[in-house]
Amino acid sequence: MDYTKQEMMAIAAGREIYDKELAILGVGLSMLAGYFAKKDHAPNLKDLTESGIYGSTPVGGLPWGVEDNRIAANATSFTNMIDALGPMVASGRCDVGIIGAAQMDKFGNVNTTGMWAEPANPRYVPPKTRLAGSGGAPEIASGCKRYIIMAAHEKKRFVDKVDYISSPGFLTGGTARDGYGFPGGGPCMIVTTLCIMRPDPDTREFMLSEYHPYTTIDEVVSNTGWALKVSANVKMTSEPSAKELENLREVDTTGMLRKKE
User: Fold this and answer.
1) pTM of the full predicted structure?
2) Residue 250: Cβ within 10 Å count
3) I need a labelling partner for 229 at 20 to 30 A (CA). Which of 59, 219, 252, 261 fits?
């Protein structure tokens, strides 16, 4: 394997971003997937960062933050976080977004707030472990026409029910999300270091649809904290092509993500 798991994940997510779409990008793997798509197969992608930088191509590698000069040097225009996450994203205008997750469940609900000793306690008490917070993910999860979740595949992250919903997926499944009036359609896929999951069209429960070339169905299932269902049409993810890897690595010129295993 001449690519890392992070590269496989970024390419798999990037393949789901299409030319001429408006995409909202966070930092890290989210940004790598978006700018990879723009360089590889979506040259007319309308890219917007959470901080409001529009139409940029990273200079000298990926930035460490959404206001880094590496994405500000050649941007088409600038606005601010309120405009980006409000009028552009929460309004339902944005086609696709990408968020990360510290913890997620089978209906695509994401927790980036904290871990609780008694998550079922109806009273809010301080978390046992406080996480980094949600940033713009709730707006992306509520407003984007569809969004992608990216996360390292570890059993402790993939749980039957999240401790806290920071960013809404399909809530309790089925039509539960529809009753809240979100302009966005919900998560379309979960991309991990081991696989791709997609929601069942009726139950909205995420199922294994593709497993990456270096793993197996059994490994994916055993590393998931709920009884993961396997699609009848499950298949192996297409390996990154030489051109895809070249384009990805030209975006990540510093190797900030490529060096990770």
Assistant:
1) 0.94
2) 14
3) 261
